[in-house]
Design goal:
With 161 residues, this protein is mostly helical. It folds into 2 domains: 31 residues; 127 residues, Phycocyanins (Globin-like, Orthogonal Bundle). 77% of the residues lie in helices and 0% in strands. Helix 3 crosses helix 9, helix 4 crosses helix 8 and helix 8 runs antiparallel to helix 9. The chain is elongated. It starts with a helix and ends with a helix.
């Protein structure tokens, strides 16, 4: 939940106006709005490029995934993997826009390990795929924007590790 929503909910729960500290937190959040929008726009506009680069890197690191018997063997299985990579990239943009990891948690991580285990998808492989997405994404951003975006990828990687 964004800092703005959280401040409002906290103040309302306590039947009070936001404190000066809470207002300062909102001010700081709003100051980073242009940066968060720029990062999200860059990632969205380059989704195909990022996903293609990340999947090629993953297959290079783990050719067993696309070999016969691997989880990404065959056109259909590989397409499903690539679809998931795009989905995770979109989740990262949600977190960046919100300035919080909560959207990533509530939309994308609750039950993810259980789902992949049930589908016999190696969770460590998904964590490696997110690392590849991170590398491909951060390479398109300035150092300052990359530093802002990196923790959102790391949050997903940690959840899958």
């Amino acid at each position: 939940m964004s800092v703005v929503s959280q401040v409002i909910l906290n103040a309302d729960d306590e039947l009070r106006y936001p404190t000066s500290g809470e207002l300062k937190a909102i001010e700081d959040f709003l100051k980073t709005g242009d940066q968060r929008m720029r990062i999200a726009e860059t990632l969205a506009e380059n989704e195909k490029k990022i996903v293609d680069q990340a999947s090629k890197e993953l297959w290079r690191r783990r050719p067993d995934y696309i070999a016969p018997g691997g989880n990404a063997f065959g056109q259909r299985q590989r397409a499903l993997c690539i679809r998931d990579y795009g989905w995770y990239l979109r989740l990262v943009t949600y977190g960046i826009l919100d300035g919080d990891k909560e959207p990533i948690e509530s939309i994308g991580l609750i039950g993810v390990r259980e789902m992949y285990n049930a589908l016999d998808v190696p969770v460590p492989g998904m964590a490696e795929a997110i690392r590849c997405l991170k590398e491909a994404s951060l390479g398109l951003l300035s150092d300052e924007d990359a530093a802002e975006a990196a923790p959102y990828f790391d949050y997903i990687i940690q959840a899958m590790s």
